[in-house]
Amino acid sequence: MSDQKTTTSTPAPGSQAGRVQPEAIALPATDRDRDAAGLTATARDALAHLPVSLAALGHRFARAGHELALVGGPVRDAFLGTAPHDLDCTTSARPDETEAILTAWGDACWDVGKEFGTIGARKGDVVVEVTTYRTEEYEVGSRKPVVAYGDTLEGDLTRRDFTVNAMALRLPELELVDPCGGFDDLAAGVLRTPVSAVQSFDDDPLRIMRAARFAAQLGFDVGMDVMDAMSEMAGRLEIVSVERVRAELERLLISPWPRRGLELLVHTGVCDVVLPELSALQETVDEHRRHKDVYEHTLTVLDQAMDLETGPDGPVPAPDLVLRLAAILHDIGKPATRRFLPDGTVTFHGHDHVGARMTKKRLTALRFDKQTVKDVSRLVELHLRFHGYADSGWSDSAVRRYVTDAGPLLERLHRLTRADVTTRNRRKARMLDAAYDDLERRIAELAAEEELAAIRPDLDGGQIMAELGLEPGPVVGEAYRFLMDLRMEKGPLGEELAREALRSWWAARD
Questions:
Q1: Which domains does the chain have, with CATH numbers?
Q2: What kind and span of H or E run contains 437?
Q3: CA–CA distance, 199 with 280 (Å, rounded to integer)
């Protein structure tokens, strides 16, 4: 991964004005001095929003003879200037003792994973999860970590994934405990492991995915030993449940800098295990430059699709997992369909349909939910549909068909299609952009005349059967499809003209 960084302004991630660069969230030089408790001014401001009831909880644990500390992500985020919202804590108390204290403190208490030492509780609007100090590792061939409880906060922190997540604030006094140098790594924008990366990834192979996810989430670089260990131990991910791997991939993709995480996965070979179809796009690199670099093109499409996501009130609010998955998978059918013609040109005929099938297979294997699998596969299948519009234009029927086939995915398809234009030929890019502007204008005009998203024939199945004296069966379906095609071609006809057309079709069929 490159160490080079570029300074820019800092609009919200996903805005069209530009993207926040990684150094924009690193600690400013003027805020690296810490007070006696180890806090910076940024952290103090963020922690000022902590609920009073959390301090009261710290006092309860202390009176019971136990330690309690805010740990991990909330501490890291506080130093980055974000008020903690996930209140993850760690304690010297064993799970039964934790449960008793939380029950006395809160309005509700529940078992999050008592076998792993984690108890949850709520007091008012404040929700906490408290985990006993612990160590954990995977047995050879096992998918579940073995848990052993620890005795010290420092020991608990050293078993965590990365140093920036291995900081804690003792409660209630908010004293920083940072045995692994997490603060300095946070300021430097680098991911390191508290112990050797090989040992850390051997203890919990999912941390390999988490390295890529945090690179995407925080915009950080990874230490060279971390990168080397990712390559060396990628195969260990096979013992981790598919669901956990998928969850990390999702978090990576909806992060502010997913390209950064994906490049790390591909560079280290981890992607060969998790998403081999993306890695395989590197195989289409053509040293003779007869076509574009499909891998680099794909990452550019992802960046451009993100730029087209909208605010929370827009049609495709950022971050949109379905759009981003479609962006990185839209061309995965190209390696299987690449053909070199005698004249030296290259074709990828049918890569949209091949890619859609590959997408469905991979996302199903990763245990994505059925709707996500369906939506992403459909976008991959449709991403080339627009091509040719700029040359020949479409009839109203073709425009209606485009909208109907896209259905609820139309706004995402708009963005995927526009993002797919990565040509350096400015004239061609402007032509394609203008053509899509024209298509969207025509869609809007037709939508003003009729509700395209709910197009139906002028007669329903019952009316068709009554008109032709039919019983339910395949012939009714044929008649319905005839009227649907007629509706697409001619627009709304009204019932009387539709009945005449149906009778003519029926007479010709006989």
A1: 32-188 (3.30.460.10), 295-454 (1.10.3210), 461-509 (no CATH)
A2: helix 426-449
A3: 29
